[in-house]
Amino acid sequence: MRDSETHVAELKKMVEDFRDARDWKQYNDPKNLAEALSIEAAELLECFLWKDKEAVAEKIKNDSVWRERFTEELADVFIYSFHLANDTGTDITEAVKNKIAKNEQKYPIGEWKGKVNKNV
Ligand SMILES: [Mg+2]
């Protein structure tokens, strides 16, 4: 299963099936899941702690141990995101599409291309 051949619905079901098989849903509520998501995001961020751009580029390219940890933390972020979406009835595809459309209105290309803030 690769990104190019997988639907979001399959991943959402996969994480739900994993949790249901262990009867862990009883320990999850939206607040706990948002907390867990935030903690996993911090673990992802830790992969970059004290490293400059060049060091990160080197890690991505040549450090398989770092790469494995980064990939696992990124997966944890997605897994908790899928749980949070599942448990709140949130359609991720619709949410992302709507948010991108909103951002397109907020940051029109003609005004924002090549800029990261209004002062640059
Ligand atoms: Mg983790």
Strand content bin: under 5%
H/E element string? HHHHHH
| Shape descriptor | globular
Measured as a percent range, the helix fraction is over 70%
What binds here, in terms of ligands, is: magnesium ion
- Residue ranges: pLDDT <50 for 5 or more in a row? none
Total helical segments: 6
Instruction: Just name the CATH architecture.
Output: Orthogonal Bundle
CATH superfamily: MazG-like
Gyration radius over CA: 18 Å
Reconstruct the topology from this structure:
Blueprint: H1 8-21, H2 30-46, H3 53-62, H4 64-88, H5 92-106, H6 109-112
The structure holds magnesium ion.
Describe what this molecule looks like in 3D.
This protein is an all-alpha fold. The protein has a single domain (about 5-90), classed as MazG-like (Helix Hairpins, Orthogonal Bundle). Helix 2 packs antiparallel against helix 4 (about 65-90). The radius of gyration is 18 Å and the shape is globular. It has helices spanning about 10-20, 30-45, 55-60, 65-90, 90-105, 110. The chain is built from six helices and no strands. Magnesium ion binds near residues 40, 43, 73 and 76.
Characteristic key phrases:
single chain, 120 residues, mainly alpha, Helix Hairpins, 6 helices, binds magnesium ion
Summed up, what is this model?
With 120 residues, this protein is mainly α. The chain contains 6 helices and no strands. The termini are far apart.
